[in-house]
Design a protein that fits this description.
Elements: E1 3-6, E2 11-15, E3 19-25, E4 31-38, H1 61-64, E5 92-95, E6 106-114, E7 133-140, E8 146-155, E9 160-169, E10 175-187, E11 193-200, E12 203-211, E13 215-221, E14 233-237, E15 248-254, E16 259-265, E17 271-277, E18 284-286, E19 291-293, E20 296-302, H2 305-320, H3 325-328, E21 334-336, H4 338-341, H5 347-360, E22 364-367, H6 389-392, H7 396-405, E23 409-414, E24 418-420, H8 424-428, E25 447-449, H9 455-471, E26 476-479, H10 501-519, E27 524-527, H11 537-540, E28 545-547, H12 554-564, E29 573-574, E30 576-578, H13 591-599, E31 604-606, H14 614-629, H15 631-636, E32 638-643, E33 649-655, E34 661-668, E35 679-680, E36 690-696, H16 700-710, E37 714-718, H17 719-725, E38 727-728, E39 738-745
Parallel strand pairs: 21-22, 21-31, 22-23, 23-26, 26-27, 27-28, 28-29, 30-31
Antiparallel strand pairs: 1-2, 2-3, 3-4, 5-10, 6-7, 7-8, 8-9, 9-19, 9-20, 10-17, 10-18, 11-12, 11-14, 13-16, 14-15, 15-20, 16-17, 24-25, 32-33, 33-34, 34-39, 35-38, 36-37, 36-39
The structure holds (2R,3S,4R,5S)-2-(hydroxymethyl)piperidine-3,4,5-triol.
């Protein structure tokens, strides 16, 4: 049983294969958090709590007379409240009808159900009934009638737990939620490092690791999307944790809007983490009888290091967050025309690219921005989702059929959440944009935002995109969003409810995506927000892959994809080979390095293939063949970070879950004279198994010459030797040298 309740002592233990999460209803009805870590069974862990009169930390009324050592200010809790004596970051802040800001929760009851709860209208981890259990703990404020249901999902086999909260106003007067987080968790004794993922447009999800210090530290977004700047995924780990050892917890917020993750080391060195919707852009009025549902956080703990943490997260996102037939189906190798043509194309030019790409083995052609309305640059046309037949030289259906006739599937780009001032849609519905009456709005890329919090806007977009998808043989959609939201305001709500706009926008977006993905189940949707500006587990519930960054420079991509891999599986990482010199950096990585970086993702191309030399085309044919050969290993295998790009050589490994085969890829990021050999320890192999190790340089011209000189082309070694002894990579002989190492298990006869 995953959830064990000891009603007599008020102890609730959530058990997974290797972890235990425990809470306790204490004598005052407060829900304490008593443990999260390696599996310990169901002993009441509250014996660890050290109570002491902390002077300036007050006591709840019922405790104060006898227990001056009992303070909510220092007790570890499951859902902290603002205004009633806990001064650390709160999960819940309520403005009551009398203007006071106070809430005090005490447990009313709890129940366990089979299966994993769902959250209508919001992304949530899903599981078969036999794979999960759910716990619901009901707490209430005795003064106002505010009630909170804490929701927990437990997936024991995966070591994954989820949390969310539903807040209901059972009182007689309206209240305003000023903060409603999804998760609060306290550690009494652990001293943690905090790993967050920061970035900017074209340089997303760079990991930063710092020891948590006294005071509140936070990352978050108020940009309307989860943002390029801070990702809604974070790790707390013990200072000694490495890729292969050490305690660490990972928290992934299934939400694509404004978020806040706060951590505090408090006065007595305890650590608290609170995750949820960002309170700066949130104020939600609950009339009597109304409820508010928070989004969900999924999390996991391991003492097996950061690599194991990532592999668990990869698995849960791949198998229990990404949905639809494309979550598991083999995805096509695609070519996108954006960097090949930008806005400057005709239907004939696209067909030319598609034909050439088809001859190389590419399976899907994606027509990017510029095919609709008056859209020859990024100053106009957004919102006018009607094909520009003059530019295409034919109808959308005819273009799709021409692409199909070239042997390719056909896909399109859309940016339905945005609108240009110079568009028919804006002229017809100026009140559909996000704008504060009487103020000029902030422009970004010269575009405005459509108010997705409004039902009629959602309906219009559903109707328009559906009409487009039904009008032509379209099997892929790239859903883009190219600006941050500002001037938060909706014409559809009265002043009292304006604080609901940001979250209502996200709910609207989710509703549109849900409707479209359910109506067009065969279409593969790829998320995008100026690259990776909305790369989060919430979007992955609707789009099983996301364009990882607008930066297509292979060497920069090594860093971006390295950071991304901590929280997200390879199958979600949109990655393409592009032209050199690279359009973002001006740098020229060899085609072998560009192919290798893109292969550590969904793999595609984004260049004018008609301009390639025949040698380059041949190399691309080889890359596609390699990707196809190893598709299952790359997309569904276990991923190991063996060396970070900053170490001079980025090395990663894909291993079959049973250790039956593996593929190691390495790209040298620094090459020195008289080089020191680069050595890595492989992982995920069978210790006793004997592996045939084949090293290749995927550059067909240089490769044959060099690999012979520095490495025996093939040898047979045990898994134990490769893991414990390691593998020395052949020395690099040029900039951005790539090595590809295939490991295949030999049969008993050594073959
Ligand atoms: C931003 C995307 O990330 C690019 O790939 C491209 O689709 C452009 N938008 C088109 O405007």
């Amino acid at each position: 049983m995953a959830i064990m309740t000891d009603r007599e002592n008020g102890v609730i233990s959530l058990q997974t294969r290797r972890t235990t999460y425990q809470m306790k209803v204490d004598q005052f009805g407060v829900l304490l958090h008593t443990y999260y870590g390696g599996r310990i069974g169901s002993d009441d862990m509250s014996y660890q709590i050290c109570t002491l009169d902390r002077g300036m930390s007050g006591n709840p009324y019922e405790a104060g007379k006898t227990r001056r050592d009992y303070s909510l200010d220092v007790l570890p809790q499951e859902y902290s409240c603002w205004g009633t004596g806990d001064y650390r970051p709160s999960a819940l802040k309520v403005r009551n009808a009398d203007g006071s800001r106070a809430v005090e929760l005490r447990v009313v009851d709890y129940r366990v159900e089979e299966g994993k709860y769902t959250l209508p209208g919001l992304p949530a981890v899903y599981a078969e009934e036999r794979e999960a259990q759910s716990l619901f703990v009901r707490l209430a404020d005795r003064y106002t009638g505010v009630e909170v249901e804490l929701q927990y999902g437990v997936l024991p086999e995966l070591d994954v737990i989820t949390r969310a909260a539903k807040i209901t106003n059972r009182g007689g007067c309206a209240v305003v939620l000023e903060k409603a987080a999804s998760l609060c968790i306290d550690w009494q004794f652990e001293r943690y490092d905090w790993i967050t993922f920061h970035g900017r447009h074209c340089m997303e999800r760079i990991p930063t690791r710092q020891a948590l210090r006294h005071g509140v530290q936070s990352v978050g977004s108020t940009r309307g999307g989860s943002s390029h700047n801070y990702n809604p995924f974070t790790i707390l780990c013990e200072p000694s944790a490495t890729e292969t050892a050490g305690a660490c917890c990972g928290f992934s917020f299934l939400y694509s809007g404004d978020f806040l993750m706060e951590a505090e080391v408090d006065q007595v060195d305890q650590t608290r983490l609170v995750c949820g919707i960002h309170p700066d852009s949130f104020a939600w009025t609950l009339e009597p009888g109304e409820s508010f549902q928070t989004p969900e956080v999924l999390f996991t703990y391991t003492d097996g290091g950061l690599g194991q943490l990532s592999r668990t997260l990869h698995r849960v996102i791949r198998e229990h967050v990404c949905r639809g037939e494309w979550a598991h189906k083999r995805r096509p190798v695609l070519i996108n025309n954006w960097e090949a043509t930008y806005f400057d194309f005709t239907g004939d030019k696209l067909v030319q690219i598609a034909r050439e790409a088809a001859s190389l083995g590419v399976e899907l052609f994606v027509m990017d921005d510029g095919w609709f309305g008056k859209r020859d640059d990024d100053n106009s046309g957004l919102g006018d989702w009607f094909p520009n037949e003059k530019k295409l030289g034919c109808t959308l259906r005819e273009l799709g059929e021409r692409i199909n006739a070239a042997g390719m599937k056909f896909g399109i780009w859309v940016e339905p959440e945005a609108v240009s001032e110079d568009s028919d849609l804006y002229r017809a519905h100026p009140d559909w944009v996000v704008q504060i009456p009487g103020r000029r709005p902030c422009l970004a890329r010269n575009q405005l935002i459509l108010d997705f919090s409004r039902r009629e806007v959602q309906e219009y977009i559903i109707e328009r995109v559906s009409a487009i998808l039904s009008s032509a043989p379209i099997s892929y959609v790239k859903w883009d969003f190219n600006r941050s939201i500002s001037d938060n305001f909706t014409h559809s709500l009265d002043p009292r409810h304006q604080g609901e706009f940001s979250h209502r926008y996200v709910l609207g977006l989710y509703r549109v995506l849900e409707t479209l993905t359910q109506t067009f189940p065969h279409v593969l949707f790829e998320g995008c927000s100026a690259g990776g500006g909305r790369f989060d587990a919430g979007m992955l519930y609707y789009t099983p892959q996301i364009w990882c960054s607008d930066n297509t420079d292979a060497i920069n991509r090594l860093d971006i994809q390295y950071g991304t891999s901590f929280g997200y599986p390879i199958s979600t990482v949109g990655a393409h080979v592009s032209a050199v010199p690279n359009h973002q950096t001006g740098c020229s990585a060899p085609l072998s390095a560009r192919g290798c970086a893109a292969m550590a993702g969904t793999f595609g191309f984004e260049l004018d293939v008609t301009k390639l030399t025949s040698a380059e085309k041949e190399e691309i044919r080889g890359q596609i063949a390699t990707f196809r050969e190893h598709y299952d290993l790359i997309q569904n295998g276990d991923y190991y970070r063996l060396a970070a790009p900053g170490e001079g050589c980025a090395v990663w490994e894909f291993a079959a879950r049973d250790g039956g085969e593996a593929l190691v890829q390495a790209v040298f990021t620094r090459v020195e004279g008289n080089p020191v050999p680069f050595h890595v320890h492989l992982q995920g192999l069978r210790a006793e198994g004997r592996y045939r190790v084949g090293v290749t340089d995927p550059d067909p011209v240089q490769g044959s010459k060099i690999s012979k000189l520095w490495f025996p082309r093939e040898c047979v070694v045990s898994g134990a030797a490769l893991e414990r002894g390691g593998l020395t990579l052949p020395l690099p002989r040029r900039e951005y040298q790539v090595w590809q190492v295939r490991l295949t298990l030999c049969g008993e006869d050594g073959q």
